[in-house]
Amino acid sequence: MPHRTLAEQVRGGFPGAVRATDLVDRLADRCTELGFLASSSLLIVGVCRDELCFPFVARLEDTWGPAFHVGSLGGLVTIGRTGISAAFGHAPEDPGAPRRYLVVAGPHMGMDETGEFGTLRREHQAADSRACGALMAFRDELLGGHVDLGYDPNDPEMSLLRQRLVSSLAYGTIPDPVQLTRHVAQLIDEDLAELIRWRASARRDTHEVRVAVVTGVLVHTSGGDWFEPHRSRFWSSRSGDFDLDLGDPGPD
Ligand SMILES: [Zn+2]
């Protein structure tokens, strides 16, 4: 096989991926244009619990300050109405001004040196391991023909992950690892949209609420993290929503 650049390898599975640092910069530029400042916005992050996700979160926090975390295993948003209400109660207050929230969420996936998705070598480990381990474990259960849909109090987040994913897949479907991860990005986007809609309708705020939401897949490589946006939009409780338009991926 002819040599492929890192960008070509990543975009072999995630055609819209950009370097994660580029995504963070583009997002900051776009949000600044829309009046979001670190001093007047709350960052809300929904990623898997894997430590691989947190350099990306740290870059976001470098710009926006400490984040409220809404993610669980696999990056799924299982925090529910109580959790999102807590998050939406924590934005900086400025009398007469909108409350602003920047939400970044999605699943993650490793890519090894050969461009294979779902596995990677972690620093200080001798063998490759899987990422996302929870999503790949769920896929193993599909392949094995047995998924326990009960709620296991000893494994609560994995129980919720199974229930959410099984209910969203066509019967008998076993997506490949990339398809599964992109599918989870869509579920996370839907679940966040539902929570935000509920929060907006559950209370009549005296202030306007403005939310910038970016969902997508975080891809880890030995040459750094990449991010493929699934959907990015701006939403206001007073004036509706529109696409954030973060631009097309460049040649790199
Ligand atoms: Zn994970």
Number of helices: 7
Q: What compounds sit in this structure? A: zinc ion
What is the total tally of β strands? Answer: 10
Fraction of residues in H or I helices: 25-40%
Oligomer class: single chain
**Major sheet details:** 8 strands, mixed
Q: Whole-number average pLDDT? A: 92
Q: Helix and strand string, N-terminal first?
A: HEHEHEHEEEEHHHEEE
Bulk shape = globular
Which spans have pLDDT < 50 for at least 5 consecutive residues?
none
* DSSP strand content: 15-25%
Rg of Cα set = 18 Å
Query: Cα distance, first to last residue?
Result: 20 Å
Strand-pairing-aware structural class = alpha/beta
Structure description:
It is a single chain. Helix content is 36%, strand content 23%. It has helices at 6-13, 20-33, 54-64, 80-88, 133-144, 156-166, 177-202, and strands spanning 18-19, 41-46, 67-69, 99-105, 108-110, 119-121, 128-130, 209-221, 224-236, 240-243. α2 (20-33) runs parallel beside α3 and α4 crosses α7. It starts with 5 loop residues before the first helix and ends in a 9-residue tail after the last strand. The structure holds zinc ion (ZN).
Summarize the structure.
By secondary structure, the protein is of the alpha/beta class.
